[in-house]
Amino acid sequence: MSEPRKHTEVAVGVLIRLSDDALLLSSRPEGKAYAGFWEFPGGKIEAGETVEEALRRELQEELGITIDGAEVWKITEHDYPHALVRLHWCKVTAWSGEFEMREGQQMAWQQLPLDVTPVLPGAFPVLQWLSEERGLPFVPPPVVAPVAPAN
Ligand SMILES: Nc1nc2c([nH]c(=O)n2[C@H]2C[C@H](O)[C@@H](COP(=O)(O)OP(=O)(O)OP(=O)(O)O)O2)c(=O)[nH]1
Questions:
Q1: Chain center to CA of 73
Q2: Best of 39, 55, 114, 119 to mutate for ligand 1, by most ligand atoms within 8 A of CB?
């Protein structure tokens, strides 16, 4: 019998700009699974890190900002061919520093429904909750197959 798949634990930040409630999306850099897809910024939690520590490190590495704090808001799972992920979602409304795309990615402040496409399917449940909170109808983003990475 095969072993059950282990979860990859991921910390994700829903950055909210308080002046207009815009949400920060960023594109996945080349070379990663689902390259070019839009996502909420974040990354894998390393051994010994809390969700908040991992998110602070990832957002410094990727975006050049330092978050003031993060508390887990929702936890979701998504089963991709490349990994079974458990996503620890945190809303973040306070940070310092200037945005700097350190991995060659793009960023976009977005209102709901999102303009950017395609979006990682693992983010769809959170888009639905955010829409519900805002009293907006949920418009599911189109489902797009990733291009297989070149070897
Ligand atoms: N950051 C982020 N990851 C997401 C979202 N939705 C979703 O399914 N995921 C999945 C995709 C990936 O399998 C996983 C994140 O892992 P990653 O490969 O981007 O993490 P990382 O930056 O630490 O990558 P690495 O360079 O260490 O490989 O979580 C989302 O909205 N944001």
A1: 13
A2: 39
Which range of residues forms the domain containing residue 36? 7-133
Cα–ligand 1 centroid distance for 2 (angstroms): 25
- Number of folded domains that form the chain: 1
Residue 142: is the preceding peptide bond cis (ω within 30°)? no
- ipTM given for this complex: 0.95
User: Within 13 Å and on the Cβ side, how many CA atoms surround 106?
Assistant: 10
Give tens-digit pLDDT for 94-134: 999 999 999 999 999 999 999 999 999 999 999 999 999 99
**Helix (H) or strand (E) segment spanning residue 126:** helix 124-133
Q: Considering the domain boundaries, does residue 36 fall inside one?
A: yes
- Cα(83)–Cα(121) distance, integer angstroms: 13
C-alpha of residue 45 to centroid of ligand 1, in Å: 10
Spatial neighbors of 129 by CB under 8 A, at least 6 apart, are: 74
The pTM of this model reads: 0.95
